[in-house]
Task: inverse folding
């Protein structure tokens, strides 16, 4: 539906986007994930028409998008700052886009009423933006964007301005709405949990390039580049060379992992904290690492245990269900199943 | 023991109150004294004169009368007041139409160039006001620079100097910076994302300007208009030098009453009328600012 081909954009010496190609499908909830300054917002602004790429093309349903000015694109953007018009009421803000389509007044009124009901703001229709809470403003911004029934809805860090509680609530609401209205959503975020929980597919950006495009679970479990392995989820990474049974790690011996890389390839072995098994030091096993518990943090549902392993630059992170009996100073052995060790070429 | 503590505590409190009051006086004193001596007292004198009669050879005869006010309604004077209103309004509108795009462009320049542009806007104020108005005589006069240029391309010469056109030109030129600066401040404050949001919702650039940019910079528009209108309305230098005495403005009239006709009471009454108009305008501006 949305086809982005070879898009590049430079600002002076800074390359914001470098040969980015993506295909986004009809009705999909798609996330552009990356650290700040990775180019994801530039791509969003290109789609909205506030920026032009130096090279490349963007088509929506086969029709060229880049040739059209911003106000003639069937694409709506929900701004990170919401950009609500401070001199208009909530209802006026939402009606603004419909009035530009020169729809009859009665239809504008009905559609504004419908969408305000959908986001639960019927009561606030007569208020000004400065009289609303952060969560309410966010919903007005969303209502204003979806009331136009765009082909494509862009969301720039939609939840970043909300506090944690409201955030979780809005996350669910966004998903529900997307199902209800059936619009293709493209969300930009630097928060991997947000991307994971919202999106059907995620494109991970780094320094203006797309590192990997995948479904959340695949992205988490099968990172294909060192950047993705490090950025998505708090992963344990061990450098070394690929071998038949996993990775010959620098200074640690052979660590178990699943690999289709040719032997001797320089690689990283990524193991998710919740896949690492913690055992008393007496236990024996292949590829086992030994170390000393450095720190334990309890998060309620899970506990994070960091283990200092001699020869390892950073402590190995282990996530265990519930509480743990491990205390700082306890000697422990670490192991994991070969299929949980993912080899990433370096 | 306890009693003496309480007493000394109260004394300390009253001492600190006194020293706070003294502190305020030190800070406010000089400005206040200046205002009282050179604004409030003269203003009170002007107000007082309005109810007295003029002396036969100038000066004031302290006989209470209302005739200064009835004389205000004389069509001769009313016409001057209305004429000044008209010229000041035209000058304000032109300054707004010229100043808004300028302010808009400056607000969108890169930071470094903004400073340069703003300094350029204020630069004329570094030269004496009179000198700048005289310069317009050189430009506009019969054999002046502008006519010379027009003749070269086969037009004119026109009578550019000494008329309402010349007065308006002079007023706009003199007070345009006072229009641009508040407009710039208002436009600069405006979140550029609001314009983007408007475009994103399908508004053409013109629609965005009238629905978003202009309403949200209204405070700057009102302030700028006031800054241009107020000094234009009471101006007497520009009409004196560029108007050729034919289209006299209320500022000239007041000055002439004081200095030529030696009718201080009527001059004061005219000054009071001018002040009243301006106070009404300021109240309107305050009301509009509160609403926004």
Result:
């Amino acid at each position: 539906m949305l086809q982005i081909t070879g898009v590049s954009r430079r600002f002076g010496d800074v390359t914001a986007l470098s040969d980015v190609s993506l295909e986004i499908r009809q009705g999909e909830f798609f996330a552009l994930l990356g650290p700040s300054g990775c180019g994801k917002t530039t791509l969003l602004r290109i789609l909205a028409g506030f920026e032009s790429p130096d090279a490349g093309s963007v088509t929506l349903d086969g029709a060229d998008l880049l040739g059209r000015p911003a106000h003639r694109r069937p694409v709506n953007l929900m701004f990170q700052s919401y950009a609500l018009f401070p001199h208009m009421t909530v209802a006026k803000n939402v009606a603004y886009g419909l009035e530009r389509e020169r729809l009859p007044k009665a239809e504008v009124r009905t559609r504004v009423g419908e969408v305000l009901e959908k986001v639960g703001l019927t009561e606030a229709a007569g208020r000004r933006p400065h009289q609303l809470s952060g969560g309410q403003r966010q919903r007005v911004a969303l209502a204003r964007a979806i009331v136009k029934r765009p082909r494509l809805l862009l969301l720039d860090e939609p939840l970043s301005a909300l506090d944690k509680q409201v955030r979780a609530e809005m996350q669910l609401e966004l998903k529900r709405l997307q199902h209800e209205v059936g619009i293709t959503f493209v969300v930009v975020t630097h928060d991997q949990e947000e991307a994971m929980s919202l999106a059907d597919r995620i494109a991970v950006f780094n320094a203006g390039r797309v590192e990997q495009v995948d479904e959340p679970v695949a992205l988490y479990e099968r990172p294909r580049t060192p950047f993705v392995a490090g950025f998505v989820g708090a992963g344990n990474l061990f450098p070394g060379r690929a071998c038949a049974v996993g990775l010959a790690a620098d200074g640690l011996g052979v660590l178990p992992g699943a690999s289709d890389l040719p032997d001797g390839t320089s690689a990283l072995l990524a193991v998710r904290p919740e896949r690492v098994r913690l055992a008393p030091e007496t236990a024996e096993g292949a590829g086992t690492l030994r170390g000393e518990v450095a720190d334990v943090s309890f998060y309620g549902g899970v506990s994070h245990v960091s283990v200092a392993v001699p020869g390892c630059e950073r402590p190995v992170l282990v996530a265990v269900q519930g509480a743990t009996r491990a205390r700082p100073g306890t000697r422990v052995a670490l192991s994991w199943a070969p299929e949980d060790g993912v080899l990433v070429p370096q | 023991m306890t009693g003496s503590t309480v007493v000394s505590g109260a004394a300390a409190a009253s001492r600190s109150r006194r020293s706070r009051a003294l502190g305020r006086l030190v800070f406010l004193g000089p400005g206040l004294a200046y205002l009282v001596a050179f604004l409030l007292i003269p203003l009170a004198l002007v107000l007082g004169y309005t109810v007295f009669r003029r002396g036969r050879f100038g000066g004031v005869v302290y006989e209470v009368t209302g005739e200064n006010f009835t004389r205000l309604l004389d069509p001769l004077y009313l016409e001057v007041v209305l004429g000044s209103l008209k010229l000041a309004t035209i000058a304000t509108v032109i300054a707004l139409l010229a100043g808004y795009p300028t302010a808009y462009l400056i607000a969108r320049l890169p930071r470094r160039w903004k400073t340069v542009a703003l300094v350029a806007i204020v630069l004329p104020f570094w030269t004496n006001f009179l000198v700048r108005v005289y310069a317009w005589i050189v430009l506009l006069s019969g054999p002046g620079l502008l006519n010379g240029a027009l003749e070269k391309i086969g037009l004119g010469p026109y009578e550019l100097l000494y008329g309402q056109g010349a007065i308006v030109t002079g007023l706009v030129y003199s007070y345009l910076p006072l229009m641009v600066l508040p407009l710039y401040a208002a436009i600069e404050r405006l979140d550029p994302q609001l314009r983007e949001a408007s475009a994103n919702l399908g508004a053409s650039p013109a629609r965005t300007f009238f629905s978003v940019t202009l309403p949200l910079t209204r405070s700057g528009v009102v302030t700028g208009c006031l800054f241009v209108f107020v000094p234009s309305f009471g101006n007497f230098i520009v009409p004196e030098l560029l108007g050729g005495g034919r289209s006299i403005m209320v500022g000239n009239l007041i000055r002439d009453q004081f200095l030529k006709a030696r009718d201080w009471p009527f001059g004061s009454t005219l000054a009071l009328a001018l002040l009243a108009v301006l106070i009404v305008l300021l109240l309107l501006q305050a009301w509009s600012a509160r609403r926004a």
Chain B has a mean pLDDT of 86.
